[in-house]
Structures are given as C-alpha cells and as structure tokens.
Write a structure and sequence with these properties.
Shape: elongated
CATH superfamily of the largest domain: Ankyrin repeat-containing domain
Radius of gyration: 27 Å
Strand order of the largest sheet: 1-2-3-4-5-6-7-8
Order of helices and strands: HHHHHHHHHHHHEEEEEEEE
CATH topology of the largest domain: Serine Threonine Protein Phosphatase 5, Tetratricopeptide repeat
Helix content: 40-55%
Amino acid sequence: MLALHKVFLFSLLALLFPQTQTNPKQELNDQLYEAVRKGDAAAVTAALDRGADVNAKFRYGATALFKAAERGNAEVTKVLLDRGVDVNVKDTFYKATALSWALQNDHFNVVTLLLQKGAEGAGDVLMTGVQQNKEDVVKIALDSGKIKPEDLTPALAFSMNANTTAITDMLKKAGATPPVEIDAATLQTYAGKYKGETGPEATIMVKDGKLSVAGFGPQVIPLMALDKTTFRPIAFSGITFVFNVEGEKVTSMTFKQATNTNVMKRVD
C-alpha cells in the first residue's frame, strides 16, 4: 500500500512540476544568436568556443550571419567568417542571403567582407552601385573578381541612361560593352499594347530610341536588347520579353520569368 502511495505521490509531483527537457546544443546556438543580435563579438566568440554551431539555422532557415549582416556589424561578421560560416545560405522566406541583407541596408563594409569569403551576388552589388551612383560600391564589385561579362553590359546600359559619366568610364575600363543596338524603325514595330489570358495588360513604348514597358508595376521599366527580338529590364535580370513576328507583323510578346511563360497577344 505504501508503494502505491509513493507511485501516486511521484505522479502528482510530475503533474504539478513538469520536467522540461533542455537541449544543450540548442541553448548554445540561441546564446550565439543573441550575442550576434547584441553585436557582442566577445560573447559570439565565447559561444562558438563552447560548441555553438556557426551554421545553426533559426527562423526561416537564416543563420547568425544574416543578423550580423543586417545590423552591419563588421566585427561580428569577421568572427563568424573566421569560424567558417556558410556565406551563401538562403533563407526559406525571402530566398535571400546575408549579402542581400547587408546590401539592402547599405552596409558596404560587410558586403566587402562577404565577397572576400566567396559570397555570390557581386552582380547585385555592381548594379546597386550603378543605380545609386556610388563609385566606391561599383569599385567593390569590380575588385571582387566575381563580375561576369553578362553583369557588365546591363550596368553600363543603366549608367549611360542615367548619364553617370564617371561610372560609365569605370565600367568601360573593366571591359563592359554596350547592349545590342536595334534601329528605331524596328523598335517602333514593337510599340503597342499586349494582353495575356491572365495578368495585367502591358504597354510597350519607344522613347529616345529606347524601349520601355509599363503595366508590371507602378513604374515604367527601361529595357535593353539581348538580340533583335529579345529584351530584358536594364536594372534587373531574370525576366525577358520576346516579340513574336509573323511575316512582317508583330503579333504577340512572350513574357518569361524563371520557369513561367505567358504569351501576351497584341491588342491594338
């Protein structure tokens, strides 16, 4: 009977004071993240020395490096980089990297550190420098040695369109070549309205010998030619507009973004 009373008592205690299982590794990782959030490089080092995982994933799959990059803390970033943090992890929500956060918040000292450790995205750094007319940022991108020829041409096109002479000269010295030139008469044949089965109506316009598109957002988007019938936005990649010609008449435009394709018929 006494044994039954003991079993009942221990069961009651378990209900009143539930025992929580702690994960020591997770606690260390949480301490690492908190130290990074506070910008405490010494605490970051201490947490790593005690066994915290420098590549531990937190909300949306981001690592501690994301927070250091977002905050622009170069000292903490250096500690994480020295400990072998993966610089090219993408989060699961924005599909962004630590470099994306540093770049978005104008933390160019951190951008430089990340590029030096092999971070991808030098083309985005270059275009940011061109768009913001910041020669030092353009230099950071060019000096990284990670700029591809296909990154240079749109950067040069944007620079020439914005009349930023100094940056245009920098890009030409780096080997940038102007985009394909299409004669004004051909460009004019593309002008007009296009509509797909679903989605917005797009308007193609010609101004000052350049093609632009409206309808994919609040702003008119300048385009550059990849060949006689294929164009892309100057300011960003991943999207193309292909004009479909039957005989001598433009009948439709194919809008492509990643794996998505939408044929938009000419309606004017």
